[in-house]
Amino acid sequence: MAAILRGMQPHPNAAPSAVRPREGMGSLPLTVAAVVTWAAVTLTSLRFDRLAEGEARHWVGVLALLGMLGLFLLRSAREPEPGSRAAVLNVLMQGALVLAAEFLLRSGMVTVLLIIVAAQLVLLMPMRWVVLALLVLNAGVWWRWSQHMAPLEALLGLVPLLGFQAFAGLTGHYAGSSERAREHLAQVNAELLATQRLLEESARSGERLKLSRELHDVAGHKLTALKLQLSRLARDPTFGAQPAVGESLQLVDELLGDIRGVVGALRAHDGLELEQALHALARPLPGTRIEVRIEPGLRVESVAAAEALLRCAQEAITNALRHGRAARIEVSLRREGAGLLLQVDNDGETPRRIDEGHGLGGMRERLAALGGQLQIEMRAPRGLRLQARLPGAQA
């Protein structure tokens, strides 16, 4: 067991993105099925006459089965992430207790519970370690059976049990792979939607800017020239007395005022609005609550700054779900002086140390290219806070 734990690395097929996988024996129907199986095996294996006589060996065997059930329910309730050493140790202890119960109760039915152990292990460990762990447990079963039958007969009797374990393990493996693929596609879809919202907002911002410039530079210029011409006519003794000239001057003044108002309204909406993109990114996830709070009227001046903030939020959500197993994530974006502050808080598991991989490194590079900075703070008793700041020149 120690060798297996030392060799453990996070499962290579662990959910790659913003997912909180509800895999394995943790879902309610599978948990109920496993408990029913345990109850059937236990009732079949018990000798009530021996229990009534107070036989210590039999009572200890019952306690081993109860311990296995307790560990199973504990793991099912907590749903640890793939690769968690505590989860692996829990399931290996379940297997050891099943083996102990088989030695104490001397009932071949108890070994059926190793199928439940196999179904859990395949979702927590790389396949080579699953095979090794099950070989060790089944070797113990074979040794126990060979005490009262021929070794070859014991081995042949073990073959069906190995087949059921392999079936349960492979079924769990492929079901988990399918679920991870589905969740990964959902995450990619959310990222694409967020990018689409950002591109749409960028296009709208460009059109508003173009329209405001056309109105100001073209229509405004020609109306000003028209006003000058009408002013000359108004000073002319021949035309100045005509009411139409004065009315035309008044209409030009009003039209210039209207154009200035429209241009001002358009320029008031300069920049990019990130609310839709962030909401698309923080799509609802099973078991996870994601809240997005954006300061009213906040707009980001450049596409580069908007993209940097969006990618930082994306990576922060991904890490909170993948590593922290967070149940609640809060994303906020607000002004901080002349600059911008993106803050992502989660209530997940607090890491002992923060190892910056490609994700966090990429965030720092994006922000540094715009003169910004990234700050990560561990919170007690649980959770992590990520803050991404951009200076006023980019905000």
Kindly describe this structure.
- With 395 residues, the protein is an alpha+beta fold.
- It has helices at 2-7, 28-45, 48-53, 56-78, 85-105, 114-121, 127-145, 151-235, 243-268, 275-281, 303-322, 358-369, and strands spanning 289-294, 328-336, 339-346, 373-378, 384-390.
- Residues 1-26 have low confidence and may be disordered.
What are its keywords?
Heat Shock Protein 90, 395 residues, alpha+beta, rod-shaped, 64% helix, disordered N terminus
What is the percent of helical residues? 55-70%
Number of helices: 12
Number of strands: 5
Give the CATH level 1 class of the domain at 272-390. Alpha Beta
Distance between the termini: 55 Å
The CATH homologous superfamily of the domain at 272-390 corresponds to Histidine kinase-like ATPase, C-terminal domain
Give the CA-based shape: rod-shaped
CATH topology of the domain at 272-390: Heat Shock Protein 90
Structural class: alpha+beta
Shape-level CATH architecture of the domain at 272-390: 2-Layer Sandwich
Q: How much of the polypeptide forms β-strand, as a percent range?
A: 5-15%
Mean pLDDT: 77
Largest sheet strand order: 1-2-3-5-4
Low-confidence stretches: 1-26
Radius of gyration (CA) equals 34 Å
